[in-house]
Each structure stands twice: as structure tokens, then as C-alpha cells.
Design a protein that fits this description.
367 residues, 6-stranded mixed beta sheet, alpha+beta, Aminopeptidase, 16 strands
């Protein structure tokens, strides 16, 4: 009886050892497969690396600006002058006749640093481009000390006093560097990485993710949503939770008739939050889905984040607390008016931007 028990025990040990061996072998082969696929994609990324780095050259910029270089990037001399400039033009609105006059003001130094310099931050600029206009401008600020991700949006109608134009036109007219400088000046945040995406890629990426869940805070009824044939269609979505495919997510993010551009910016953050919530649940079994999304990223997204950096960001920050809904608004940080052409614009309540910087600082510092 004892001999039989020993044989059974030996057999069980052999069985368990064999299972562990093949399990480890399977994981090893799966990791090798994933590594091979990633290396293949990394090779393709390397082939398009120069395009990603210099993507700003592909946009046609206004040639009427004498200080813009041939490829549309602010020339170094002018950029340096702008960096050191202590005087800018501030629009003064005469609301009776909607005239836009100019006066010279002194910009005060941001002596009370609103953001704690000791906080370990990673700031990623995300902007959506449609016909050269950046109608979606968002900064994802990752606080690595407090495990918090803040989503911050800048309204597209924000009037940049230095360039004398809406911020959503700066990229097209003056180039990528000028656009980033404008975002940095407004937010007081150093931009570490960027992601640029177009609408078609936006739709395909969400479809590859299998759709996203969003929460719609109020009923939407837009009778003038732009259709694909340059006409209008009705877009309607009830209040509550919804699982949206790419096309519906785009409509949710773009619609604005019936409410404001600030609500639209908040919906755009809700969509980004939905994408993050899907991605943060990925693991090894989702490698094919990850690779399909990555292929679309190569085609439709321009970024200086490598595939390995992206995977590291997914792994390191997937459990961070996401805080959406942070939008520069009227009347809290901004006020609205019209420029000399009659265009709707928003400007900072405080020309020194301290009011905005303090608001963003309270978010970043988690006060």
C-alpha cells in the first residue's frame, strides 16, 4: 500500500512539474510572439520616424507672415525675440460697436509659481486636426507623485494676444512650435510629449477598441450636425451611459449646437477618458487588439511617443485616478466677446494669466 502511495505521489509531482514547465514555456513563447510583433511594428515606426518628427512640414501655412520660415516653423530669431518679449498686444473690447483696439501692457513675471516645481509631472499635448484647424486642444497631465491624471482643455476660440488670432488657427498659420508655445503660455505647463490625430483615425481606433463607454450628462438634440455630404443631419443622444462606436463617439465629441463649446470640450474629455478606460484593462491576451490599434496609430496619428514608451505609459499609469471635466470656462477663468470681424472669442480675465495658472496649479497640486 505504501509503495502504491509513493507511485501516486511521484506521478502527481511529475504531472505538476510537467504542467508548470509547459505553462512557463507557453508564457515564454507568448512573450516571444509579442516581442516579435512589437519589433515588426517598431521597424515600421522607424521607417516613418522622420515623418513623425517633422510632421509639421506637411501642413500648408500662410506665406503672408513675413516672420514664418519656408516650412512654416517660427524662425529662431523671431522665436527667441518672442520668448524674451515683455510687451504684448492686449485686445480691448469696445462692446458698443464690437471694435477691437490695441493697447500695450506689461506682462508681470509669474513670481508666485502656481505649480509645485517638485512634483514629478508628465504633460502630453493631444490635439485633433480638421482642415488644419486644431478644434480639440487638450493636455493630459500625469502627476506621478500623487497617482493622478488631470485632463485639461483649452477652448478653440481662445484669443492669443501675441499672434492676434484664435488658438485653433495658430498651428495652421504659424506652425507646431508656435502652437506649443501658446499652449505652454496659457497653462504654465511644460509640454513633454504630443499626439496629433485626425477624425478618420479617431473613428477607426475606437472601432478597433470595440467601442467605448461614456456618460452623457444631459440630453443632446442637434438638428444641425454637419453630415458627410456637407449638409446637416439630426444627432440625438439621451442622458446616461452609452457604449459608442467610432462614428458615434466622434458625433458626441463634435456636436455643440444647443449648448456651448465648453460643454463640447468636456465631452471630448469624456471620450478620451473612455479610451483610457478601455486601454488600461489590456493585458497579454489583448495583444492582437493592441497591435491593430497600433497599426491605426501609425497611419493616422503623429506623435513623438514611441511604441515602447506608449506601452510603458499604459503599464505604469493604468491604475492612476483620472480627473476629467477640467475646462477653461466663462466666466470662471475667461470672458467672451467678439473681435473686429465679429467672431466670437474668449480672453483671460486676468491679462497676466495668473488666474488661469492658479486654477491649473490647484488641479495639478491636487488642492
Amino acid at each position: 500500500m505504501g509503495t502504491k502511495n509513493k507511485k501516486i505521489k511521484s506521478f502527481l509531482i511529475l504531472l505538476i512539474t510537467t504542467f508548470v514547465f509547459f505553462h512557463q514555456f507557453y508564457l515564454s513563447e507568448s512573450n516571444k510572439l509579442m516581442e516579435a510583433k512589437i519589433n515588426d511594428l517598431e521597424g515600421r515606426l522607424n521607417n516613418t520616424n522622420q515623418e513623425n518628427v517633422n510632421f509639421k512640414d506637411e501642413v500648408t501655412y500662410a506665406s503672408s507672415d513675413s516672420f514664418v520660415s519656408k516650412n512654416g516653423i517660427l524662425s529662431s530669431d523671431v522665436a527667441n525675440a518672442a520668448e524674451n518679449e515683455d510687451e504684448v498686444k492686449e485686445p480691448v473690447i469696445i462692446k458698443s460697436d464690437l471694435q477691437l483696439k490695441e493697447k500695450t501692457i506689461k506682462i508681470e513675471a509669474n513670481d508666485a509659481q502656481s505649480i509645485d516645481n517638485n512634483i514629478d509631472l508628465l504633460n502630453i499635448l493631444i490635439f485633433g486636426v480638421n482642415s488644419g484647424l486644431t478644434d480639440t486642444i487638450m493636455v493630459i497631465s500625469i502627476n506621478r507623485d500623487k497617482n493622478i491624471i488631470n485632463l485639461l482643455s483649452i477652448p478653440r476660440d481662445y484669443w492669443d494676444t501675441y499672434y492676434g488670432d484664435k488658438i485653433n488657427r495658430i498651428y495652421r498659420k504659424h506652425g507646431f512650435d508656435a502652437f506649443v508655445k501658446s499652449v505652454t503660455k496659457i497653462t504654465d505647463l511644460k509640454i513633454d510629449k504630443f499626439v496629433r490625430i485626425d477624425f478618420e483615425g479617431f473613428i477607426k481606433i475606437i472601432d478597433h477598441l470595440g467601442g467605448i463607454w461614456i456618460y452623457n450628462e444631459e440630453d443632446i438634440f442637434d438638428k444641425r450636425y454637419p453630415s458627410a455630404d456637407y449638409k446637416y443631419e439630426t444627432y440625438e443622444l439621451k442622458k446616461g451611459y452609452h457604449n459608442l462606436n467610432g462614428a458615434d463617439a466622434l458625433k458626441f465629441a463634435r456636436t455643440r449646437h444647443g449648448d456651448s463649446d465648453f460643454r463640447r470640450a468636456a465631452r471630448q474629455q469624456e471620450v478620451i477618458n473612455g479610451v483610457i478606460n478601455v486601454i488600461r484593462k489590456f493585458d497579454l491576451k489583448d495583444i492582437d487588439k493592441i497591435l491593430n490599434v497600433t497599426k491605426e496609430l501609425i497611419t493616422y496619428v503623429k506623435t513623438d511617443i514611441t511604441i515602447f514608451d506608449g506601452l510603458k505609459i499604459m503599464a505604469d499609469y493604468k491604475n492612476f485616478d483620472i480627473k476629467p471635466g477640467n475646462v477653461l470656462r466663462v466666466p470662471e477663468q475667461l470672458y467672451s466677446t467678439r473681435n473686429v470681424k465679429g467672431e466670437y472669442i474668449v480672453l483671460p480675465r486676468d491679462p497676466s494669466l495668473k488666474h488661469i495658472h492658479n486654477y491649473i496649479g490647484s488641479l495639478i497640486n491636487n488642492n
